[in-house]
Q: What sequence folds into this?
């Protein structure tokens, strides 16, 4: 039987300081311990003690005034044998102390001489003490005064270079490794078991990116026909759509080394560091080929050059981008190094970076549709302890516009809610509450609302509900609440369909619903409030979008000033004349006025129902679809729809 010899734990402090540091510290401490300068073993004293104990007893041999501020007292040799002077009789290592034996400070030499003369007025001439003057300087004091700061500085430099900088250059790194790449390498031995099964949805994207996997596994299949695999693949999509997960899945499927880093890790305050790290990254990648290099948030270094993106010039970022362009253009397609990059701002990337030959292929990862959300829910629900009756298709229908990260957050929030309620498993109510919390915010149970404010809120939300119920182009209303959530004091929930385009009438009806709350306050209470701020903001933005961007205006038809490149925000002037600007403002005011008048007309036609709706809201605080049907009747335009409630 083999003997099991467990490895001794390593001393993590073993290499913290080198041997020369300990040796130097030892001699410094020894020197400080034994060195006393020219004073030797002299003891501090005072004028009174000197006068009474030494001078008047005729024990003083001589006095030396040093540097005009200190008096050194020398005791006679025969007097040192007396018990009163035992403390100063012995020097270092037990030898007789030659002096000085005592010292004390003085403020003025003249005053001290007068005091000394007065104290010796009764002495004979041969008994008076001799006084001499001298200037002393301690070389050790000078050395220590500048030596200690130097030693401290060298010590801190050692710590920075040997310990802190090791994070940039690996274990044992130094300042010379500062320009090394900070990419994390996931090799076969340590790469996580992530593949395309862990990426729900995006079937089209998987098919397109599968070519990269096939090339890394079997490059001859492509090269024998003269084909060239793309050098770079750009993953584009909103935040949370799984761009990083997709890149890791590619590496997992291909079973090749995977270098991962963020674009911000290239850029430092020192000029040239970013370019150096780019060179080192591609050097390492070529040594590990075939492999994948993944750069997350590449827009950090890949922004357009020479454009008015900002007034701030960053030469370090541009030099890093130039080096990245050179490296991607420098290695051939058969090296086996494929660069994946991810960004949600593809519109601001430099044209030289996204041209053919560098990032040849762009794969768009959009927000998941209903079927894809259902698959994502299944993945995130698998590790949770939940009720088997959980309706996953219904949850998917309740969350349009949610990214994969949002769905993961919903599942986690539902688990936290169930845990706070001390449940044994997660049920549908927990998911309802989690979705409500994510969309509208946390319920404010302790928020103080006066009865008059509550009346205004109920009338406001009743106006939204009634107008939306009566318009055919508005998504079905499922719930109205006057319970504060997040920043809102009340909310109306709708089930919108996932439409790719919206017509002019649909947008106009939505505008009417946005203004329904303000119109209800105006019509019923004869006074408007600040509660419509969010509605007015949304309505104004939509009206300007309809007129200036979508070309849905009678006076400015078929004209769009929308800038898909995202550069309009940095321009100092608008892309249209002052005359056109005035026309846009006039059209927006007319459009909002028309929508407001239509909302008032609907409320006036259904005044009794509006009053009953507001009354029920005051009593119950929350009205569901069934409650609304009892008051307003069945909505004729309702169609079967299982989409996500959205906050109005």
A:
């Amino acid at each position: 039987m083999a003997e099991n010899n467990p490895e001794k734990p390593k001393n993590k402090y073993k290499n913290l300081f080198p041997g020369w540091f300990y040796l130097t510290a030892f001699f410094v401490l020894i020197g400080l311990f034994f060195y006393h300068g020219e004073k030797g073993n002299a003891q501090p004293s005072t004028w009174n003690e000197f006068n009474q104990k030494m001078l008047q007893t005729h024990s003083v041999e001589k006095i030396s005034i040093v540097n005009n501020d200190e008096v050194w007292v020398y005791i006679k040799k025969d007097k040192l044998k007396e018990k009163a002077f035992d403390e100063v009789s012995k020097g270092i290592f037990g030898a007789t102390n030659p002096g000085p034996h005592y010292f004390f400070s003085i403020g003025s030499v003249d005053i001290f001489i007068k005091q000394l003369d007065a104290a010796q007025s009764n002495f004979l001439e041969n008994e008076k003490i001799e006084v001499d003057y001298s200037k002393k300087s301690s070389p050790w004091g000078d050395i220590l005064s500048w030596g200690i700061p130097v030693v401290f500085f060298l010590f801190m430099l050692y710590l920075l270079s040997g310990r802190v900088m090791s994070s940039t250059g690996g274990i044992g790194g130094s300042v010379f490794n500062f320009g090394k790449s900070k990419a994390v390498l996931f090799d076969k031995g340590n790469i996580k078991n992530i593949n395309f099964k862990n990426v729900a949805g995006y079937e089209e994207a998987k098919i397109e990116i599968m070519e990269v996997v096939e090339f890394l596994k079997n490059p001859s299949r492509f090269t024998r026909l003269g084909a060239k695999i793309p050098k770079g693949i750009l993953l584009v999509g909103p935040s949370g759509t799984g761009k990083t997960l997709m890149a890791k899945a590619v590496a997992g499927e291909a079973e090749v080394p995977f270098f991962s880093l963020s674009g911000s890790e290239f850029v430092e305050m020192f000029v040239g560091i970013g370019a150096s790290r780019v060179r080192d990254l591609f050097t390492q990648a070529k040594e590990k080929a075939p492999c994948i290099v993944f750069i997350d948030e590449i827009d950090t270094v890949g922004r357009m050059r020479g454009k008015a993106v900002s007034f701030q010039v960053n030469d370090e970022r541009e030099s890093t981008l130039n080096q990245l362009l050179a490296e991607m253009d420098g290695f051939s397609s058969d090296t086996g190094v494929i660069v994946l990059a991810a960004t949600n701002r593809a519109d601001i990337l430099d044209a030289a970076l996204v041209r053919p030959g560098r990032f040849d292929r762009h794969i768009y990862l959009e927000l998941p549709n209903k079927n894809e959300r259902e698959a994502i829910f299944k993945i995130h629900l698998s590790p949770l302890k939940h009720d088997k009756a959980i309706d996953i298709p219904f949850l998917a229908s309740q969350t349009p516009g949610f990214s994969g990260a949002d769905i993961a957050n919903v599942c986690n929030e539902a688990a936290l809610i169930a845990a706070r309620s001390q449940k044994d498993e997660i049920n549908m109510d927990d998911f309802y509450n989690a979705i409500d919390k994510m969309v509208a915010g946390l319920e404010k149970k302790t928020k103080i609302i006066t009865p008059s404010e509550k009346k205004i809120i109920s009338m406001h939300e009743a106006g939204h509900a009634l107008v939306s119920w009566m318009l055919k182009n508005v998504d079905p209303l499922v719930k109205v609440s006057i319970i504060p959530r997040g920043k809102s004091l009340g909310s109306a929930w709708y089930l919108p369909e996932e439409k790719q385009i919206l017509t002019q009438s649909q947008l106009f009806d939505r505008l009417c619903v946005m203004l329904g709350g303000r119109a209800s306050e105006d019509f019923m209470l004869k006074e408007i409030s600040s509660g419509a701020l969010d509605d007015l903001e949304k309505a104004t933005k939509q009206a300007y979008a309809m007129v200036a961007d979508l070309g849905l205006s009678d006076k400015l038809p078929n004209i769009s000033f929308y800038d898909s490149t995202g550069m309009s925000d940095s321009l100092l002037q608008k892309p249209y004349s002052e005359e056109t600007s005035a026309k846009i403002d006039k059209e927006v005011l007319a459009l909002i006025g028309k929508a407001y008048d239509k909302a008032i007309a609907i409320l006036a036609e259904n005044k009794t129902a509006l009053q009953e709706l507001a009354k029920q809201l005051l009593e119950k605080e929350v009205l569901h679809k069934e409650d609304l049907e009892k008051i307003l009747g069945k909505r004729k335009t309702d169609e079967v729809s299982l989409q996500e409630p959205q906050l109005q």
About this structure: The two ends are 74 Å apart (CA to CA). The chain is about 45% helix and 10% strand. Residues 131 and 481 are 99 Å apart (CA to CA). Residues 1-16, 163-176, 307-313, 638-645 have pLDDT under 50 and may be disordered.
